[in-house]
Specification:
Elements lengths: L7 H14 L2 H4 L1 H4 L5 H5 L5 E4 L9 E3 H6 L7 E2 L4 E6 L11 E3 L2 E6 L4 E9 L6 E8 L5 H9 L1 H11 L3 E8 L12 H5 L11 E8 L2 H9 L13 H10 L1 H4 L6 E8 L43 H10 L2 E8 L3 H7 L7 E5 L6 H13 L1 E2 L1 E4 L5 E6 L11 E2 L5 E10 L2 E2 L2 E2 L5 H4 E8 L5 E7 L21 E4 L2 E4 L3 E2 L5 E2 L22 E4 L2 E4 L5 E2 L5 E2 L5 E2 L2 E2 L4 E4 L2 E4 L3 E2 L5 E2 L17 E4 L2 E4 L14 H21 L14 E6 L10 E7 L4 E7 L9 E6 L12 H32 L8 E4 L3 E5 L7 E9 L6 E8 L7 H7 L5 E13 L10 H18 L9 E6 L10 E11 L3 H14 L1 E2 L2 E11 L3 E8 L5 E7 L9 E13 L3 E2 L3 E7 L5 E5 L3 E5 L4 E10 L5 E9 ...
Helix pairs in contact: 10-12
């Protein structure tokens, strides 16, 4: 291993070559490594060597070339060298009919990180032997397939003979495991599952591979079908046995092995939830288990194999699968076959009649593909196969040409580390092994590969405790390796003692080592792992010159305070290239001969606007601007006109010369012509030379101008007169043609091909995507477009129900139904007409209703019109600007035909009484059908038919409408396409909208009737419904103001309020209508955006004076039993309604008797009733005031009299309305650079509702803090993103920032800050920049950003984690007060928050749990939540979860009684069966057994299973209903009695038959319904021993979230796990965890618990580290973080208060001096140390295949 001797010149030459060829970082990797021994050095990099020369004084670990150049003797340089030896190499013989490879054996030794490559050759002959094995599904559904296979024997043999002359054929069959739940285990079914069938089995080798085709078909004729229960089959067991049982099947060594897999069902695979839970079955051992009859015997003991296992085993045994499956299961195998490098997939017909054609096509496709795979490779070695001539497919195989030798390049690479562990620290089997490089059709190449991890020989010969090391270390490899606590070349210096610091003091400084290191034994040991260098650590390698923000222009490295540039670069910051390549002009010269090249740029001797970067003339720029540049000077010098007229022309840089004739344009650089504004004449001039006129240049100007003649001015009036005459003639012609157009339309020549019809014949609509209750259906007119045509049409609803419309019209003919009427008025539409409430709209509505009521009064039983509104109809031809009126007429159901005839008659006349309408257009809509007419004016080709869609809540899931064109009453057109079918599919509604109750009682004194509308969210999104008022005994404009419009629910909104203005009752109305209680209705209709109407969707509003309303309501309750005389009963029908954001109206019915008054109790929901407020009232109603906005209150009332108080009424709850939020809690700035900042803010202290968005504004201000220019606005529509990165700010300029929040009530007040980034200290960021935060450009537009750019590459994750840990800006103080200013800033930032109270989060640890992680769904249920009231002067904010204690005292019962089973595990065995497993509980006595109870979550029959065997901890439950939720309870029994039960809720989701919702579809997938993982874990350090953890709710909860389970444990083990339970369902949940250790990694796991059970875990690892490795600083007199221990069931309560610290940009409620989480941002801005080593595991959706 010693190198040869080299002369000094050779050493210098090698060092020079190395410095040129290697970048700085790679060349110094060995040198920079912190190693102590030779072995450590050799393992740093493949180029590292070690010098064992005792006299060598430089760094011993370096490259071989640099060690020789530094003076190390050649024989003292120790190098580990790799090797590659060919052990077997037989040349390929192309005459043989078999697959061959070359070489056949290799032995390779590689250093970590080293790569070696070699050439690998493979030969595939034109014709090779073929072994064809058919593996067929023998379940009952494949009976017709088996019959066809028996009949096509000769065809299959013929195809095989065409493929090859040497073939064998075999046959096997499979069904599934003969066990529950795959097979019906009843005795009669085990004997014959179907009539005339064989008993069930797993796999049988029926016919081994044979050359005798006749024998094959004879045996096949006797086969019969079998059967099983579930749709997925056990084909994987059969495939594995076919592959590994080579002797039984009969695979030949040198043949092509084809396996045909035929089925019409899906497949079972390893750990698919049916067999492996709780240890029912062992993992497949991948061995052959066929008995003498060829039957698989281990189906009851071993599980199915996995997909990766099959891929590996088939490749190992040269077997190529051909999947022949039916269309039903094609999607499953389409995914599966992609895992096999060489395979084929074909679609079988239902009876397998095309199997022969499928095999022929698959075989030819397979023959052209070759896969080369490295099998049995150790972890430390990577293998890659490429080819320069052959193309790769998507699966990684190669397209080959048979009969030719293919050449491949094989590259072997030894990795340096795996998952952060050096390869030499791995196990022996991971470092070395025998790799089998195997092509698809041959045995392949065997390689003995190992990674060189040898120990240096000199270390094996060390002198322990050598005298040369003062007996304080070992002497080995030419130097001393000192014991701990000693240093120096001879171990003579103690690192723990204080040495003389004088040698470490730099002249003029008082700190040793410049304050950047420690003085040890008279030498400076610098901090920063290479950041500081020099004898006195005086050089900072982060402070070298920069270019564009990059250190040393990213073209060199910083060393000793100077840039050491890479080859080819120079300059202080390595910004100057040594090459002149950027200065070469188009002719190959340097700077066009007009300048010199310096630092890669041309410096031109004559600079002008038209010279480019290489001093060449830019002629394209000349042509764009030269003429214009010279124009004013030419005018001034030649004619004395132009812009410089009256001024001297001396400033012009050239002279003009007048000539009689100019050269042609192609002979000069530019030929210019312009018009002189003074005389309207055109002058011309030319530019010659290089196009850049100088002081001595001359421009040639044509002496004579071209002026327009003056003798033709008289022609202009004549031309104008002729144009007017022509226009008059055209007008007369147009008038004449208009009169004759009817006659022209009757001519056969003009009517040829004249046709009208619908454009399409079918429309498919999805109700959840519809934004309207109608469809504009285009109708086309073809051929001659002259003349006018009208078309009558009709639409029928629910044509999928025969006779539905006729039946609906025949029922209750006298019942009043609404008829929709649309007419086109004879006036244009304006914007005001479409705005209800405007004067113009009200006037026209009154006119329309008066005239239409006058016409329709002749219809018996017709009421007056209502809901009148106006619109425009696009695509309506020449009258699309006219006004269309839509109105509603109440009339009897039997009056439909009368209304239709009357409407058509009036439309044909063109008027309704005195109201002018456009003929040819109307629409009359009844309950289930509609009729109408559209008009084609002359020249119009397309009009839209506005078709109503009759959207009803009771509609079928898929309904049909039929639109029909009836006839053409006016015009000569014929009907073309007459029918249009419209299909409307009703899908899962996004929300159900309804009223809270069907009736509301309102007193006229309230002036406004407030009717709540609620939405139940099913799928978060927006929903919209229409609303309108309808008269009853109360009349619009007399008792109330009619109301109609649209209600839009934004995502997350669940409550809206309709406000109907009430009118005072006039005296004449009181006389005419008496004391009647008046009512009117409010109707919801037209749900849009996937909404659906719930019940009730109509509300009745009862009007009257207070005493009338009370009396009418009292009469409704007279039938209720009366209490004994003298005793007061409870008030009846208590009703609460929010009257605003801080008021609730509470009323009730008086009880029988004579109460003297009423006493009302009300309190915040969740608080104790002992904290209720009391009100006294003399009347049966009261208004609760001074309440909190958007807060739930509970209330009840009792009556009192002379006998005392009566009983209280039932409890009523009500929520106040939303109010605009308060200002955001604080603004925080992370100063990234002088032009980049990260702005973050906290949620408002008083949200007063649900925050939906934030608006951030920022703009420049002057010295007086007044705005300069407009503010830029950014809308952050995700309220969770309370963070914004703002770039490209102006440097050293103050900016004003404002943030405000929005909820359902509107925008709240702003929080403001003014800050100049340049004056702020650069410090480690307390809130790291994290992915998915909005980034905006300060130089962008001024309005709202239409998009926000979300950054995914802001962070550079540490090598040890998949993703960085994240930190949020969540505050621990919801209320509180703080004033602060930026230290050292001229512009201060002032912030205040409303002072109320501080809240803490209560927590306590749970008993540690060891959780067995499997692929099954893990469901845990814990004891019910105990709510703790912890109240100050305010209420507990809604966004803070309450955490309960789960201590051992709570969970254990009496002595000897079993504890609760610690967990439940559910595993789906099928769509109607599952397995329930649990863990044995703790108990001091012997367990006697278990009890399992289950029933539907909605109630019903309770089923109980008694298990007397205490060792049985699982049970299979069958006959469950699919898609129904069940609750399971398990408890244990001992001699002392039954223990507490463990409860869990689970749902098996599967596809069911549309006509039978309780019958699962065969073969459909089934899954357990569980919630997804919570959002990313966010860690915030609070102190050296505590942190805050927060997370977002799961995206797919799959039920109502009840709370969360949080587990904390040491990442490396060593201590018990602590469990916390967080209750509540918030968008973001938070938890403060105390009692942690500093510099110790902890693993946190968070699970969501819903009504469906526990979901998957979200995991994160975090470490709290102090900055600079020291403790947290003392806060001095400032307030900081403290803990109070409460004497209660909780172990501790952490209360966080604000503090101020010097040097912090803002004083947030977070301890930022230590434990901060920092990040690498971008290379040009910040380079920081990650002080919180965290990882975040991303939950991936479970794939169909497990790899």
């Amino acid at each position: 291993m010693a190198g040869p001797r080299c002369s000094p010149w050779v050493k210098l030459l090698l060092a020079a070559m190395l410095s040129v060829s290697l970048p700085g970082n790679m060349a110094n990797r060995c040198k920079k490594a912190q190693v102590k021994t030779c072995t450590e050095c050799i393992r740093v990099d493949k180029s590292c060597a070690y010098c064992t020369d005792e006299l060598f004084k430089e760094r011993r670990c370096n490259t071989q070339a640099e060690l020789l150049a530094a003076g190390c003797r050649g024989e003292s340089v120790l190098v580990m060298e790799s090797s590659l030896d060919i052990t077997e190499n037989t040349q390929i013989d192309t005459t043989l009919h078999r697959s061959q490879v070359s070489p056949q054996g290799l032995q390779i030794r590689l250093r970590p990180g080293e790569e070696r490559s070699f050439v690998f050759k493979v030969f595939e002959p034109l014709e090779s032997p073929v072994d064809l094995y058919i593996l067929m599904d023998f379940s009952n559904s494949m009976s017709d397939d088996l019959d066809n296979l028996k009949q096509m024997g000769q065809n299959l043999a013929k195809i095989l003979r065409q493929l090859t002359s040497d073939y064998t054929i075999g046959f096997g069959k499979f069904v599934d495991k003969v066990s529950v739940p795959q097979t019906d285990m009843r005795p009669e079914k085990l004997k014959e599952p179907w009539p005339n069938s064989d008993p069930p089995f797993s796999f049988k080798n029926v016919i081994s591979l044979t050359e005798n085709v006749e024998e094959f078909w004879d045996k096949l004729q006797g086969e019969r079908i079998s059967g099983n229960l579930d749709a997925p089959e056990g084909g994987f067991d059969a495939i594995l046995q076919t592959a590994v049982c080579t002797r039984d099947i009969g695979w030949r060594a040198d043949s092509t092995h084809l396996l045909v897999f035929s089925t019409e069902s899906a497949f079972h695979y390893e750990a698919d939830g049916a067999n492996v839970l709780a240890g029912i079955m062992n993992r497949n051992d991948e061995k052959c288990h066929l008995d003498a009859m060829g039957t698989y015997t281990q189906y009851k003991i071993q599980d199915y194999p996995s997909v990766p296992t099959l891929v590996r085993l088939l490749a190992k045994h040269n077997i190529i699968p051909i999947f022949a499956v039916t269309n039903y299961s094609y999607s499953y195998y389409e995914k599966l076959h992609k895992y096999f490098p060489v395979s084929s997939l074909g679609v079988l017909q239902e009876d397998s009649s095309n199997i022969v054609e499928l095999l022929e096509e698959a075989f030819y496709r397979i023959r052209s593909n070759l896969d080369i795979r490295a099998l049995d490779s150790p972890r430390a070695v990577r293998t890659e196969v490429t080819s320069d001539t052959l193309q790769k497919t998507e699966t990684g195989s190669f397209h080959i040409k048979r009969g030719e030798v293919g050449t491949y390049n094989v590259q072997l690479r030894a990795v340096e580390d795996i998952d952060g562990t050096h390869v030499c620290q791995l196990a022996e089997e991971d470092q070395r092994g025998n790799i089998h490089l195997k092509p698809s059709f041959s045995d392949g190449l065997r390689m003995d590969v190992s990674v060189i991890c040898d120990v240096c020989a000199c270390e094996l010969q060390k002198e322990e405790q050598s005298a040369r090391c003062h007996y304080r270390g070992d002497f080995m490899c030419g130097h001393c390796v000192c014991n701990e606590g000693w240093s120096g070349k001879t171990c003579n210096c103690s690192t723990g003692s204080l040495s003389d610091t004088q040698p470490c003091l730099r002249e003029g400084e008082d700190k040793p080592c410049s304050g950047r290191g420690e003085c040890q034994c008279g030498r400076c040991v610098c901090y920063g792992e290479g950041r500081y260098e020099g004898h006195f650590c005086e050089y900072d390698n982060f402070q070298c010159p920069r270019t564009s923000g990059f250190l040393c222009n990213d073209r060199g490295r910083c060393s000793m305070g100077q840039c050491v540039c890479e080859p080819g670069w120079t300059g202080r910051s390595c910004d100057c290239p040594l090459s002149n390549a950027t200065c070469i002009d188009s002719n190959g010269g340097i700077c066009n001969g007009r300048g010199y090249c310096e630092c890669g740029r041309c410096h031109c001797s004559q600079q002008s606007l038209y010279t480019d970067t290489t001093c060449e003339i830019n002629y394209s720029a000349i042509r764009l601007g030269l003429c214009e540049d010279l124009r004013s000077c030419v005018q001034c010098q030649a004619w004395g006109t132009g812009e410089k007229k009256g001024r001297t022309c001396e400033e012009c840089s050239f002279k003009v010369k007048m000539v009689d004739e100019l050269k042609k344009a192609e002979e000069v650089v530019e030929y210019c012509s312009f018009r002189d504004e003074d005389d309207d004449c055109t002058y011309s001039y030319t530019v010659e030379g290089d196009g850049s006129p100088g002081p001595n240049s001359t421009v040639l100007v044509h002496r004579k101008k071209d002026c327009p003649p003056g003798s033709f001015w008289w022609l202009i009036p004549l031309l104008i007169f002729l144009l007017l005459l022509l226009a008059l003639l055209l007008l007369l012609c147009w008038k004449y043609c208009a009169c004759c157009k009817a006659c022209l339309g009757l001519l056969p020549c003009c009517n040829r091909g004249h046709m009208v019809g619908f454009k399409e014949d079918h429309y498919l609509l999805r109700e959840n995507l519809m934004a309207s209750d109608h469809l504009d259906t285009p109708m086309l007119r073809s051929g001659n477009l002259k003349g006018r045509d009208t078309v009558r049409w009709k639409i029928t609803n629910n044509v999928q129900r025969p006779g539905f419309a006729a039946h609906a019209s025949s029922t209750s003919p006298s019942e009043l139904v609404p008829y929709g009427l649309s007419l086109r008025l004879g006036r244009l539409c304006t914007e005001n007409l479409m705005k209800p409430g405007t004067r113009e709209c009200d006037q026209l509505r009154q006119e329309v209703e008066e005239n239409l009521n006058e016409v329709y009064r002749q219809v018996n039983g017709a009421h007056k019109l209502q809901q009148t509104k106006f619109r425009q109809q696009p695509n309506a031809g020449k009258k699309q600007d006219h006004t269309i009126v839509d109105t509603v007429l109440l009339a009897p159901r039997s009056a439909k035909q009368t209304l239709l005839k009357l409407t058509e008659k009036q439309v044909e006349q063109g008027s309704f009484h005195e109201l002018k309408v456009a003929p040819g257009y109307y629409t009359l809509t009844a309950e289930q059908d509609a009729r109408g007419m559209v008009e084609f004016q002359e020249g119009v080709e397309l009009v839209d038919v506005r078709v109503p869609l009759f959207i009803r809540p009771e509609d079928d899931d898929e309904k049909q409408l039929l639109v029909e064109a009836i006839d053409v009453p006016v015009g000569t057109a014929t009907l073309g396409r007459r029918l249009v079918n419209i299909t409307i599919i009703k899908e899962q509604a996004s929300g159900v909208v309804s009223f809270e109750q069907p009736e509301y009682s309102v007193s006229r004194g309230e002036q406004v009737a407030r009717i709540p509308v609620v939405r139940r969210i099913l799928d978060n999104g927006k929903s919209q419904v229409s609303y309108s008022t309808q008269d009853n005994t109360a009349h619009g404009h007399r008792d109330y103001v009619p109301l109609e419009g649209e209600l839009l629910f934004h995502p997350g909104e669940t409550w809206k309020e309709l406000q109907v203005k009430l009118l005072e009752l006039k005296e004449v109305d009181s006389l005419l209508r008496g004391r009647q209680v008046r009512r009117f209705h409010v109707q919801l209709s037209n749900p849009k955006y996937g909404a659906r109407l719930g019940q009730p969707n109509m509300a009745t509003v009862i009007l009257g004076d207070q005493d009338e309303t009370d009396r009418s309501l009292i009469n409704q309750t007279l039938s209720s039993p009366l209490p004994p005389r003298g005793d007061l009963g409870a008030p009846q029908n208590p009703n609460a309604k929010a009257a605003g954001s801080r008021k609730i109206h509470f009323n009730w019915l008086p009880p029988p008797g004579k109460p003297m008054g009423y006493r009302v109790k009300y309190w915040i929901q969740g608080d104790s009733e002992s904290e209720a407020h009391l009100l006294d009232s003399k009347v049966p109603s009261v208004e609760l005031t001074n309440l909190y906005p958007y807060c739930d209150y509970e209330m009840k009332v009792c009556a009192y009299g002379a006998q005392g108080e009566g009983p209280y009424s039932s409890l009523v709850s009500c929520r106040t309305h939303q109010e605009v939020p308060s200002e955001p809690g604080r603004l925080a700035f992370n100063v990234v650079s002088s032009t980049v900042t990260q702005l973050s803010w906290a949620e408002p202290a008083e949200t007063n509702g649900e925050i939906t968005a934030y608006e951030v504004c920022y703009g420049l201000v002057n010295e007086d803090n007044r705005p300069i220019g407009p503010m830029k606005k950014v809308l952050v529509d995700n309220p969770k993103n309370r963070m914004l990165l703002i770039e490209n700010l102006r440097e050293s300029q103050p900016y004003r920032y404002t943030v405000k929040a929005r909820n359902g009530a509107g925008w709240g007040p702003e929080r403001e800050a003014i800050i100049n980034l340049a004056t702020q200290p650069k410090r480690p960021m307390s809130i790291p920049i994290i992915p998915d935060i909005p980034i905006v450009d300060a130089q962008g537009g001024e309005d709202y950003e239409s998009f926000l750019m979300y950054s995914d590459d802001v962070l550079r994750s540490p090598a040890s984690s998949q993703r960085p840990s994240v930190s949020d800006d969540t505050e621990h103080l919801v209320n509180g007060r703080m004033d602060f200013a930026y230290p050292g800033s001229a512009n201060s930032l002032h912030r205040m928050t409303a002072a109320n109270a501080a809240y803490g989060t209560h927590l306590s640890p749970h008993l540690s749990h060891r959780v067995l992680s499997t692929s099954s769904t893990l469901t845990r249920d814990y004891h019910s939540l105990t709510r703790t009231e912890h109240s100050h002067s305010g209420t507990l904010p809604r966004d803070y979860s309450t955490l309960t204690s789960l201590s051992s005292q709570d969970s254990r019962g009496a002595a000897g009684v079993p504890d609760t089973p610690t967990r439940l595990v559910f595993s789906a065995l099928g769509p109607t069966s599952l397995k329930v497993s649990w863990q044995e509980p703790q108990c001091d006595r012997v367990l006697l057994g278990y009890s399992v109870e289950y029933q539907l979550l909605t109630g019903g029959e309770l089923y109980r299973l008694n298990i007397p065997n205490p060792g049985q901890t699982s049970v299979v439950v069958e006959d469950l209903l699919p898609n129904h939720s069940y609750v399971f309870r398990v408890r244990a029994q001992s001699q002392e009695g039954w223990g507490r039960e463990r409860e869990g809720v689970i749902t098996i989701e599967s596809q069911v038959h549309p006509q039978s919702p309780l019958c699962p579809l065969p073969g459909s997938a089934f899954t357990l319904s569980t919630p997804s993982a919570p959002g990313p874990l966010v860690f915030t350090a609070l102190s050296p021993d505590s942190l805050q953890l927060s997370w977002e709710r799961p995206r797919r909860p799959n039920g109502d979230i009840l709370g969360y389970l949080v587990t904390c444990e040491m990442a490396q083990g060593g201590g018990p796990a602590t469990t916390f339970r967080v209750d509540g369902d918030n968008l973001e949940s938070r938890l403060t965890v105390p009692g942690l250790g500093e510099n110790i990694p902890y693993k946190f796991k968070v699970q969501a618990r819903t009504t469906e059970g526990f979901g998957p875990e979200r995991e994160g690892v975090i470490t709290i580290e102090s900055q600079d490795g020291g403790p947290f600083p003392q806060l001095g007199s400032h307030s900081g973080l403290f803990q109070n221990t409460l004497q209660s069931e909780y172990s501790s309560s952490t209360t966080t208060e604000p503090f101020l610290m010097d040097g912090l940009t803002v004083g947030t409620q977070r301890l930022e001096a230590g434990g901060s989480l920092t990040r690498h941002v971008t290379q040009e801005f910040v380079s920081r140390t990650l002080t919180a080593s965290g990882s975040l595991s991303t939950h991936m959706d479970q794939q169909f295949f497990q790899t």
